[in-house]
Amino acid sequence: MRLGGRQSDNIEDRRGFGGPLVAGGGIGTVVLVLLALFFGFDPRVILQGDAPTSPPATQQAPSPSTSPRGHDDLRDFVATVLADTEDTWRALFSRMGREYRDPRLVLFNGAVQSACGIAGAATGPFYCPQDQKVYLDLDFFRALRERFRAPGDFAQAYVIAHEVGHHVQKQLGISDRVMAERRRGGSQTNAASVRLELQADCFAGIWAHHAERTRHILEAGDVEEALNAAAAIGDDRLQRQTQGRVAPETFTHGTSKQRVQWFTRGIESGDLRRCDTFGGSV
Fold first, then answer.
1. CATH of the domain at 204
2. Dmax of the chain from CA atoms?
3. Residue 122 carries which DSSP code?
4. Which of 92, 151, 166, 227 could disulfide-link 127, Cβ–Cβ 3.0 to 4.6 Å?
């Protein structure tokens, strides 16, 4: 992946301000939660905003400390990818006669307080629409490489672009409509979550399409890295790995095939209109 140019100023480094949020169960518990929530969030937290406002007594609450010096190269990578998404989405919104408001990206380790509640590193990267921030523990990229067997810098960029895709949904009013739908309840709440996630995958592809077209960021094998990551975290594959069976009625992010399909649609077309996951079957 060829990245250069500027780094985003919209980075909020809170590393060193939190400890482990998941109590008990050891690394196996953390991995299972990662598998369940990888690349996204608990829809109840993000779409309904009903996360706990304080951690249970058995958990370690965030406490200030000195931010670690580790991960500096990875932090620079994240800041550069974020800047590239900013440049891309500003241009695309301008063509629509709209103004794109950049999200902030919060780096944390252990646990973090967001407007959607307190989350731990085991939650994985997530976007909180209430404060319009992306939250990322850099240790997640190690899990991406080692646990999910999805290595590569473009796989990591895909993680960031997917979460920024949720910010684009917020800017376009899409996530607000889905939130209202969820608050009304009904049997289609999980289906709405799937469509939201698949659209974020498509928006990640939109970014990659236009970044390549204008700045030539892609190298051989980059697209395959993203597709491998998308396939690795389909609901069907994760459920089969963790519980030995697939329960489609509980899907929140879509199957491996769907995630690959929608990212591919975005990167091949570069057309926002092709990302309408709510207009028909997915």
1. 3.40.390
2. 51
3. G
4. 166
The answer to the question of residue 6 being in a domain is: no
C-beta neighbour count of 280 within 10 angstroms: 6
Structural domain span for residue 137: 11-275
SS3 12: strand
Is residue 2 in a domain?
no
* Count of domains observed in the chain: 1
Is residue 163 included in any domain, yes or no? yes
Centre a 10 Å sphere on the Cβ of residue 41 and count the other Cβ atoms it contains.
25
Q: Give me the mean pLDDT over the 263-281 stretch.
A: 95
- Indicate whether 265 belongs to any domain: yes
* Better-predicted residue by pLDDT, 40 or 265: 265
Q: Tens digit of pLDDT for each residue in 108-161?
A: 999 999 999 999 877 889 999 999 999 999 999 999 999 889 999 999 999 999
Q: Is 191 exposed, middle or buried (0-12, 13-18, 19+ CB in 10 A)?
A: middle
The predicted-structure confidence for 15-59, as pLDDT tens digits, reads as follows 987 544 433 333 333 333 443 344 443 433 333 333 332 233 223
Over range 226-237, report the average pLDDT: 91
Task: Round to whole Å and give the CA distance between 84 and 276.
Answer: 23
Considering only CA atoms, which of 138, 169, 147 is closest in space to residue 229? 147
Q: Are strands 133-136 and 104-107 parallel, antiparallel or unpaired?
A: parallel
How many angstroms separate the CA atoms of 173 and 110, rounded? 31
Q: Are 132 and 104 in contact (CB under 8 A)?
A: yes
Type of residue numbered 177? R
What does each C-alpha distance from 36 to 17, 40, 137, 235, 240 come to in angstroms? 25, 9, 16, 8, 11
What DSSP character marks residue 248? G
Residue in 207, 229, 232, 228 with CA at minimum distance from that of residue 218: 207
pLDDT surpassing 50 at residue 223 = yes
